[in-house]
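Running co-folding for pyridoxal-5'-phosphate.
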Amino acid sequence: MNNINNSKKLYTRAKKYIAGGISSQIRVLEHSEVPLFIKNAKGSKIWDVDGNEYIDFIQGMGPNIFGHAPDFINKQVSEEINKGMIYAAQFDKEIEVAEKSLKILNTKDWTVRFASSGTEIDQLLIRLMRGFTNRQLFVKFEGHYHGWMDSINYSVHPDLELAGDKSNPEAVPESKGMDENTKNGVIIARWNDIEHLRDIFKKYDHQIAGVLMEPILANTNCIIPDDGYIQSVKKLCEENGSLLAFDEVITGFRILGGSAKEYFGVTPDLATFAKSFAGGFPIAMLAGKKEIMDYVGNGTVYHGGSFNSNVASIAAANASLDEMIDNKNFFEDLDKKGKKLISGINKLSKDLKVNIHAQGLGSVFSISFTNKDHIRDWRDHFINCDETKYKYFCQIAFHKGIRLSSNGRVHLATTHTENDIEKTLEMFKLSLLEMKKN
Ligand SMILES: Cc1ncc(COP(=O)(O)O)c(C=O)c1O
């Protein structure tokens, strides 16, 4: 067992001054007895204040695509911030970042806007869908996460007791204190079922501004939708004059092809990006068709923000995108590495006769405990995945030096080595054997 006495002492002190001792609620769910306090981190590794080393698969919940503290990003950031931090004006690197990101996204007629977090940029996306179409309603799917704001923080991981009938899901708020009126603007749907969505479009005939989704459901089992689903959703949107919007906060600048747009070969009207985009620095981006983005461009749909396109984040994004463009196999290499881990985990499942299950893409995937070989939506996850067992597994793995996220999502970084993958599989094996004994 790792000794985490220094973390315990700091947690007691933190609770005196910081609400709950933490700055984002998910951090309370670390698999140690108390939230972990970190001394430093580099590449694939992280060290806590008690000197314990972990191979880190949380990686900041996704942003650290190059691992912790990448030298090449830090170098460019420190050079740029010596000139200034926030200008409340434009500068040339911002244009470079826009050009390079659109190159990776493989678009010609798109423009972008920058912000600082995924939550924030998804708010702009929703406002723009409404502003452009002059319609108030939008579709949000169960099991999908688009940040913690009132307008959208519904039915992320709802208890099925509260979630209503599967043909007519209820909007279940994720928090107390949310503005109840926001419920009227959101239609909750089950994902990965085109007939269900067709019924919704029939019911709300030409009233839907847009359909927002994680095109690969990274926040629930990293689900890749059924063949043809995304294409059919796009067609439905077109037939109804509604916009299709992808939340690529996790998938963007990470998965094979660099985006779900490229992975599926389906171009949405709008898409949001954040996390991996700037190798750990806070940035977010809304991108989309020029005719729609022009509503933001001319101020019809208002967007502001003091920290938008700040020098540090833009410099980090610039360095990060250069690396993705210059290294022709960037996304393939990351994908391959993760797929080794996925197949290793699924092999352990067979060899040891335990129901651990990995699914998703290589660069980001999900671990759960289930007897099914494929989970296809939130309700399927709720009924078939044993979260208590996953938590127990993570607690054991934690004490063997493997740091996993509380929601099952595994983030690969370019700095995870072959050795890290092998050691992780070995520690997983020991953890599963220990679970079997108890
Ligand atoms: C798909 C998705 N969208 C939006 C967000 C919100 O991003 P942020 O935490 O930067 O506000 C997240 C965060 O995990 C996410 O996974």
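Result summary
The longest strand covers residues 110-115.
DSSP finds 13 helices and 14 strands in the chain.
Job closed.
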